Amino acid sequence: MTGASGSGTPHRSDRRPPHTPRGARHPGPGGCPGTTPPVPGQPAFLFGFAGFFALSGLLFALVTWQVAATGPLRRADERLGRAVVGHGPTGFTEFLADLGNLAVALPVLATAITYTLWRAGRHDRGALARASAAALAMAAVPALVAPLKSWIARPGPLTQDTGYYPSGHTATAAVAYCGAALLLRAYVRRHRWWPPVLALVLTLATGAGLVLRGYHWPLDVLGSWCLCVMLLVLSHRLAARYSRRPRASRTPAAPDR
What we know:
This protein is mainly alpha-helical.
């Protein structure tokens, strides 16, 4: 009898699948037995982070090469820097440049880390991982920027003193404000877009102030942004990987009938 137990097809005689979990399973690749568990969006998500990291790395390498080799991009950068320096209200552009000072940016990140740990409690491994990653990213800024400044030895726009590429103030602002936004976004219930947008505005404003005041060339700022994007992506992914580490289940699996 078609559709009976032990017949050639596990479905009913009217060719409709039974309303059971087993009937909804799909075969593995190539018709092999088993199921293909859905992993919604994970490959595209990981590729997005990897692609963003790689693109920032390539742009950083290009900018660093041009600055170190006094290439055409550096010459164009210096023409642009001389053309825009001094523009804008002095007090306002100085205020924007000061957003990259440690005394301004570091307390913002420290407050976000403290709030995250307070909200999460002692047993939230994910929050601890995110807070630790943000602190390590900020600690990595001088460790990465200082050797590059010494190696490139680029003079500033208004001085012959060297050590202006990449911009340390830009890196401090980017890591502090964007790191704080990534931490606080987890605790915003509505309109979760505003912490990243605010961090982006503060980071861009800091770079603009540094260029308009003549503290840095435009490529000094751009190179720092590329470096910080890589640093933030790496720290964010490491924190996510640690917080999602699978735990061994103590509940025995149900036998497959």
